[in-house]
Amino acid sequence: MSERRGPDREGRLLAWLGRVTDASLLGVPRFFGLLYGPIDEGLPLAAAWRAARARRLPAHVGWQHALGGITFFLFLLLVGTGVLLSFYYRPSVQEAYPSIQYLESEISFGWLVRNVHFWAANLVILAVLLHLLRALVTAAYKAPRETNWLLGLFLLVTLLAFGMTGYLLPWDQWAYWTTTHELAVLSRLPLIGAPLVALLQADELVSGATLSRFFAIHVILLPWIALALLSLHFQLVRKHGIALPVSGAAVLAGEPFYPHHMLRQLVVVLLIAGILVTLAALWPRPLSGPADPYSPAADLRALWFPAAIIRATTRYLGGWGLPAMLVLAIALAVLPLVDRSPERRPLKRPVATAGAAVLLAALAALWVAGYRLAGPAETPAPEPPAADVPPQPADALPAAPAETLPAWPRSGAPGPVDRRTP
Length: 422
Fold this sequence. Notes:
Blueprint: H1 2-20, H2 27-31, H3 45-54, E1 56-58, H4 67-86, H5 96-106, H6 110-137, H7 146-167, H8 173-186, H9 193-201, H10 208-240, E2 253-256, H11 257-282, H12 305-317, H13 321-338, H14 350-371
Antiparallel strand pairs: 1-2
Helix pairs in contact: 4-6, 4-11, 5-6, 6-7, 6-11, 7-10, 7-13, 8-12, 12-14
């Protein structure tokens, strides 16, 4: 009885949807990876749904094609947890740090949401890098997929911008001085570096104006850019199909997308979710003291792994670090225009394969080295501003009422949080 009830309910739902809309509605589940291939909009909705579920993937598609789905899942998780965090976060110098303390200490599972967001921001960069390296090794950047390769690089840059702007938002010492160092490195870019940093920083030093601008970029501008790039990326994947086997063998029809590949995606999603919760519970992102622009962090750690790579690159390569990263980015962008041969087998392309291996090893080494660079901030602190008001006798100034004093600590470890000011 229960086995018949499920299909009956599905049929009634599809029949109702077919009366109020058409098959174009299936573009929504297809965008989220629940369907594969084109939607036949000439069919009734129920028939188009059954045809899309039965569509077969190429026989060579398997677990190795899950990196794109992992990246998309992590992005959606970042959006969801980011929305939850925005309910309590206050983007101002006076309230940013206390609002994070309040979220972690007073809101049920607030600490878990924040740390899942933090670890997802690390893993999504790793997933994109592995996805790009896989495309590099298997020559999936070659015709007719050159545009999709460029879109992947733009998505990586967009996610790095997400991480950079979000890293400052806790407004603690580690976030403040890591961002200060990253902006100092960015200012060394030829031609565009100084104007770009002036636009982002919005002040002579990282301040409340920078925090407001980073928050607006993080929650308003970048999500729309990412959505546009993802939509174009998915459209091109569906237009050109999944890359052919590197062996050049004929493409054979394999298993239906539903339920076979859908179950593979579900297993991967559950595995990644379990890893994220474990990392959030065992290695939460600690808070240092509140940000102080005139006192560099004494024990600075780069907790976001691209920040650790940047710190290690500038420490060990000095002035050559930024030019090396620029050359690498340009080389990856023009690679489809340079490598025009039809050969896609990794062993027949030793230069590309060895380059991908060296790149992966270099990134891993720089990450480990940057993470272990625990010490004082390398960017010097500015001189505190001189007082504009001449000193007055103590009895000339009225004492502030106790209830108006700020609830957050001025320095040192996080203090108690006023429950009335989240």
